[in-house]
Specification:
The structure is a homodimer of 527-residue chains.
Chain A: E1 2-5, E2 17-20, E3 27-30, E4 57-59, E5 68-71, E6 74-79, E7 88-89, E8 94-95, E9 122-127, E10 133-134, E11 138-143, H1 149-163, E12 172-176, H2 192-201, E13 213-215, H3 230-234, E14 244-246, H4 255-274, E15 279-282, E16 287-292, H5 303-316, E17 320-323, H6 333-336, H7 343-362, H8 373-377, H9 383-390, E18 399-403, E19 413-417, H10 423-432, E20 437-442, E21 455-459, H11 462-467, E22 474-475, H12 478-481, H13 486-501, H14 508-511
Parallel strand pairs in A: 11-12, 11-13, 13-14, 16-17, 16-20, 17-19, 18-19, 20-21, 21-22
Antiparallel strand pairs in A: 1-2, 2-3, 3-4, 4-7, 5-6, 6-8, 9-10, 9-15
Helix pairs in contact in A: 1-4, 2-10, 5-13
Chain lengths: 527, 527
């Protein structure tokens, strides 16, 4: 990556800053917060033919019609018409290529020795019976069907008001409400996804081994299916109160009766959770999900590379990093398949891509449906440019494993957890996979938060970080301006992750109590 | 419908009560709350060969293998093996038929003169500019994307605590949160459904013409698309504050700033809503959705016929009744197509059935995915039996119109609004269609409620109504025991609807503050 500064006498007196990532690139992006005006001469002699907003691309050379437009050293598409040097290159000038073919892709060719280990890092976490560690101590109330959501919300309000103040070591109580459970084709092939997602959400490490399931009684998704298998063991050691309560249980004389029973069930669990204390856990107990949302053209050069740097540190320390978002990985799959740890992992990666291609096609769509109007306003021309900037979050390590949507992590290291790119769906699936902390990068800004794990938000540009001081945890925009390097921000993020994981710091969304709903990936029909 | 009582010397001393609906029926259902034991002799001489639980079926004659099992005068399937008289007939003994073919179905052949008008009924409602009437006076906060849900929830808490007490004529404030808006294939063919659902939810008559949309700014669903077209007019008459606020608006210096702006926006609307008063509205302003959930074998003989009776009264009074739930209508379509008001309406009805057949097939499912374990425990053998009992809610009138999922009512009378049968998805779509009150029947029991309209809950059996005194509004179980006739309960329900619509009474779920989430019907892919 190189910063190109023009002559000091430039327009407005402000130094022009552009970022060109790879030597092969024939475009660079404008860093200056106010953009740069037509007529401005850059250091390399290029004269801007158009006004170019911040984050948008400038042609550094004449690009012939049909010739590749190159960023990140990769073609992000071909020129729709001849693009003279100095032009602004927006999405209308770039014809998107087909995604890389999945056949005959080199697999596991870069799987070499792996990253060097990193010792000596730890955080203060809550140790769970199953060997995982929580970064928070939360009572989760799992629900088997949306029908009970109103009751679960009522219950959570009552617990917050009447019980939680008496159990100060418990961080929160959360109802795991969702839109699934009944009125669905529960035996359809794709129903496996929402069902295992709910099963695994109930096992999230931040829920401290406690299980409390509220069901209705007539729904298709049997509430007993949401009790983790290891609870059978746990109930043998004196914890005999049943983990499932169904509202249709004929012993209940109306609503008041149900609420009394549920409050009792909650209190027994709160009492146990309240006895737990943080203890020193190795950094290898981190399960960090990385995600981007509301991306701009800076995301791929500032926030995402810093996350990638931190991801490498976590992996080197023995921890787990999950990256996701199939439609933002699809166009960079030729860069990822070689990083698979072995042939099996590589095949699994390609299988997830192929599944998603078919899924989109069956709904009359393709991966070009991904970029948002906000992405484009932020300077991203298409999903190829978005994907190339997105996968950088995965760092440089080998891909140790691939999870289907809603599956739970089973190997440490860098893991690809296949999910849609939709922020709230991806977040829900990463929680199901066992994530105990999420890192979220954004260029446009989003107040996004999750109910079961802290979300550390990294801005890709400084103006956003300054405007949203109370919503952004770390400013990676300093990388664009040259104030900080990627390793600096990456190490800072790693330390911040350890602090937030330890409860020494709260992430912004957590401090403000902002949390999105759980939104399941539910590709099977409703009935 | 006939009640068959056995001889007084029967087992347990309790009178055996069975319901046979049609003269052709070769099965009847047991009414007695505790069921009836094997060996019991019924009035017609049938001796029970098995214990038969309440709500379950008894063969009143020998049924040969392959012969039709008949209930409601219709074949609900064929006998899997010979069924001797007196046997319990459960789902294992009934082979489901194919659904009625949609080709060559008689259409609009019963469209005759229509039901006789009924004058003199009214309720006290809130008159809206667009001619509709509200039964409640609610501030609705529409959201364009799930990303803003955490902020919207925070806002609603603040408004409830700080503003609502100062505006006593406003019933409630509701955030219309949902799982749509970004990370979706917004141009996919089926995306029209969630988008028009959100557009029409914002226009629900209980939201009093006020519009407040919270967007993020980079999402795919442009928040401006959620402003009803008639608001352009309304903003000309002095209401000049813009209806949309985007969190990414660059004038906001962080979260506190956003919240202040949204509180101001909300307060201006609360002040206007607070000036509204109920006025006498004709019953023709009712838009009542009817729905069943957690059904049992009684639903089709008690609650649903009473709802059908009340539906006829509403239609006769010039009002609108919507029935829905495609998979619970599909197997009774041969009974409904003849009731279409004309050929166009009939074709629209068949088109919705065909669309849903294809939708289910594309997901590897069919309408047999509908009945729940609870339905079966309640005595329903399959979707045919469920459908025959379900469509009775539509009463006996002509079908005046057919709406696609998420469309808004455009004609008064009996309307088929195509929706999934899933309670929470159906409720959301009926709210989008403009429903100002819902009637919900249940046999198994559900605490279901809706955020934008009161839900009147009718139990199909007396034990449920007695157990759930604080959750059930009306007991139709008295019809099964012979204590009341269908017209009695139907008229009682009609009066209750007018009382609840007028705010003179609160429905149970409303009184307890129980409301399900809005769950969109979203058949297009996520990305």
């Amino acid at each position: 990556m190189s910063h190109e500064n023009d002559f000091p006498e430039g327009h407005c007196g402000e130094r022009a800053i552009l970022i060109r990532i790879h030597d092969r690139d024939n475009v660079a992006i404008v860093v200056n917060a106010g953009g740069l005006p037509a007529g401005r001469r850059l250091e390399d002699g290029t004269v801007l033919a158009d006004d170019v907003p911040s984050g948008h691309k400038v042609a550094l050379a004449d690009i012939d019609e049909g010739a590749p437009v190159i960023r990140y050293g990769e073609a992000i598409g071909r020129a729709v018409k001849a693009i003279p040097r100095g032009s602004r290159v927006d999405e209308s000038l770039v014809r998107s290529p087909s995604p890389p073919a999945l056949k005959d892709l080199p697999i596991a060719t870069q799987s070499g020795p792996g990253l060097p280990p990193l010792a000596g890092y730890s955080f203060e976490g809550y140790r769970n019976v199953d060997g995982t560690a929580g970064t928070r101590n939360i009572l989760g109330i799992t629900t088997s069907v949306q029908c009970v959501a109103g009751v679960a919300d009522h219950l959570v309000r009552r617990i917050r008001e009447e019980l939680l103040p008496r159990y100060p070591n418990v961080d929160d109580v959360v109802a795991l409400n969702h839109g699934y459970g009944c009125g669905v084709a529960i035996d359809a092939p794709a129903a496996v996804i929402p069902i295992r997602t709910l099963q695994n959400l109930a096992r999230n490490p931040n829920l401290g081994d406690e299980v409390m399931v509220i069901g209705l009684g007539c729904e298709k998704l049997d509430p007993e299916r949401l009790v983790p298998p290891d609870r059978v063991r746990a109930s043998a050691d004196g914890r005999s109160d049943p983990p499932v309560l169904c509202l249709q249980d004929e012993t209940f004389r109306g609503f008041g009766d149900m609420v009394r029973a549920m409050m009792g069930m909650a209190e027994r669990r709160l009492a146990r959770l309240d006895l737990r204390r943080r203890e020193t856990c190795p950094a290898s107990d981190l399960v960090v999900g990385v995600q981007c949302g509301g991306s701009d053209a800076f995301s791929g050069v500032t926030a995402n590379p810093a996350v990638g740097y931190a991801a490498d540190l976590i992996v080197r320390a023995g921890g787990t990093v999950m990256f996701s978002e199939v439609t933002e990985v699809r166009d960079a799959i030729h860069l990822l398949a070689p990083r698979a740890a072995d042939e099996t992992v590589g095949r699994a990666l390609l299988r997830e891509m192929a599944w998603y291609d078919r899924y989109l096609e069956s709904g009359g769509a393709d991966r070009s449906a991904n970029p948002t109007p906000g992405n484009k306003k932020g300077g991203l021309a298409n999903v190829v440019e978005k994907a190339l900037g997105s996968v950088i979050k995965s760092g440089s390590g080998r891909i140790a494993d691939v999870l289907g949507p809603g599956e739970r992590v089973r190997r440490k290291g860098l893991v690809f957890a296949a999910t849609p790119a939709s922020d709230f769906v991806c977040g829900t699936l990463q929680l199901a996979a066992g994530m105990n902390l999420q890192v979220f990068t954004t260029g446009r800004g989003t107040p996004y938060g999750l109910p079961l794990a802290p979300v550390v938000k990294v801005s890709s540009n400084t103006p956003l970080a300054e405007r949203w001081r109370d919503l952004i945890d770390l400013d990676a925009g300093r990388i664009a301006t040259g104030e900080a390097g990627i390793p600096d921000v990456g190490r800072e993020l790693f330390r911040l992750i350890l602090d937030v994981a330890s409860g020494r710091r709260q992430a912004a969304a957590e401090r403000l109590g902002l949390r999105n709903d759980l939104v399941l990936f539910h590709p099977a029909p409703v009935t």
